[in-house]
Amino acid sequence: MLRGPFQMRLEEPSLRSAGPPAAEVRCGGFRVVFDEGEPSVRLVPGERRLSQAITAAVVQGLSDAPALLAEALRVHAPARPYDVVEVTLAPGELTHGEASSLGTGCIRLSLGEQTPVEHAVSIARHEALHLLLASSLRGGERWNDPELAFADWIVRGIESGRDSRLPRFHAPLPQLLEPVARSRLDVQQQLAAVASAPGAARKYFGEPLFAELQRLDSQSDRAAVEQRQLWVVEAALGTHYLETAGRLHLEDGDGLIPIVLDDWLADYEEYSRAVANPPSGAGNLWRLSESGWSRDPVVRLSVAAQALQADDHCHFRGDRFTHAAEPVIWKNRGRIRLPLRAREARPRPPPIHGFRAVLREVEAPQAMALVEQAARAGAHLFEARVLWPRILSRLLAANLPAPATQPMAVPLVQLVDSGHGSAAQRAFEEWKAAAAALRAVVGAHAVHVPRIAEPQDAATLADMPRAPASVQLVHASPPSAADLLAARQLAARRPVRGALFRDHLDGGRAYERLPDLDAPLDPRYRDDVWLSASRLPERLEDLPGLVDEATKDGRLTTPVSHLLAMIAIGLEECHYPRPR
Ligand SMILES: [Zn+2]
């Protein structure tokens, strides 16, 4: 019954004014569901009063969230990460909300019968932002964790849209930030002092924020006052961190706000459990060839290999690896993070120059000799994904010392069952055997060999939670239009480094029926071919020969060659959707 007028009001500018409700019904609450993307409202039986303005406000808040996220983080907001919004009505005017990204995602709100319309807008927007962060950033569910005050600060900061009226913090920073509050409770305890011990509160919050908190103070509804005060503190903190992260902006437009926020969230989690120092701006951005981020040749080449694969679609020209055009690395507390975002498709020097450049800054004659050896016989013109297995197999065979790092996330090879289960199962066995053979010969580096996952159909894959690392899809047959479409749709939402099809791409016939789709999230994405191997490596010293044979035509072929192309030692890959 609310449906008709309710959908019309989405464009109504007067929505936010808390004017007299146009229509009122009796119910216990309502659910917002999405039929073919369009929101519609279903009432739940009950006796509380609900005005139409409130239902409209909730939908407005939900629809405001993606643009706010895109603006604050300079990422492209992901598809709606929730399927249901449940609203319960209660007495009074307080609002509560919680969000969960489990399953298809759910938002639960509790609104008072007297809740002002603008508060209904903001609570819905707030919970939607939690879920958008959880689905687009690598911190995942932690962005929904009510125990992590930092996640809430960032959400409040995004909500406030960097409002210039919010108090800012200036050096010397107030006690609230040095060291930063460990929890919401920390902040709430200090808020009690605003009225009772203003001197202490002024020191804790700093003058500008303290003045704002005092302005909000009043004798009326205490709970509402404290809630509003807490929100202002959280919005000020969130804005502070968003603005600090924003200063790391690079000249090529490659904003790195999400990677920094994710790192700070991870730091904050440890800090809130008292096992680490508070998050700070201590991380650093480096250009690929700069020496400061690591002196280990295997790590440096691993990072270069994955960064350069993102440019494999470029036309290769020239031999100068110019500093300003190099990919960047973020390093914080010893952890090396490689942001993988699509870069401008301009001519780039062949990848061999990138591999040489990362070694030039450190003393690594043996690794340099192996790189040159791998690039012989025309391979100096190969793409990064093809040249890297040739280099890596030599590094491994030469037993070059490499850091004994446990990977945070091992790449995943996901077999796709396109409806002929037995073929997918055979392909799975083949890939599993290749990975096992590789693990058996590479010794301590076995932990870096990609994991091979049991075949799943495309629909199941689309609903599975996001894997911690980028996924390589592997099909047991040449591409059908349906396979391609499913792979591309998945790649637009999740980090997918490619879709491999058996034997050939069927002359590209399936491509003619493909609709326009969003760009893949992982810039390394490609539809490619895999071929069965005639033999698997049995000894480490055989590996370079086998890989050279598999890549002799400048393409990856066997499972072993594809697996090596994915291996990266000593880094974490990060994926963030680029803004449009
Ligand atoms: Zn929250």
Tell me about this structure.
- By secondary structure, the protein is an alpha/beta fold.
- The protein has helices spanning 3-8, 52-73, 117-136, 149-160, 184-191, 193-196, 198-205, 207-216, 222-246, 257-272, 297-309, 351-360, 365-374, 384-397, 421-442, 458-463, 481-493, 543-550, 559-566; strands spanning 24-35, 38-51, 84-90, 95-100, 106-112, 284-287, 328-332, 335-340, 412-416, 451-456, 471-475, 496-502, 527-530, 572-575.
- The protein has two domains: 3-136, no CATH class; 284-575, no CATH class.
- It is built from 19 helices and 14 strands.
- It has a five-stranded mixed beta sheet with strand order 2-1-3-5-4.
- Strand 7 and strand 8 form a beta hairpin.
- Zinc ion is lined by residues 126, 130, 152, 155.
**Integer-rounded radius of gyration:** 27 Å
Bound small molecules, which ones? zinc ion
Tell me the major beta sheet.
Answer: 5 strands, mixed
The helix-and-strand class reads alpha/beta
Helix content bin: 40-55%
Assembly state = single chain
Task: Give the rounded overall mean pLDDT.
Answer: 87
Give the CA-based shape: globular
Low-confidence stretches: 1-21
Count structural domains. 2
Number of strands: 14
How many helical stretches?
19
Q: State the end-to-end CA separation.
A: 37 Å
Strand proportion: 15-25%
- Arrangement of strands in the largest sheet: 2-1-3-5-4
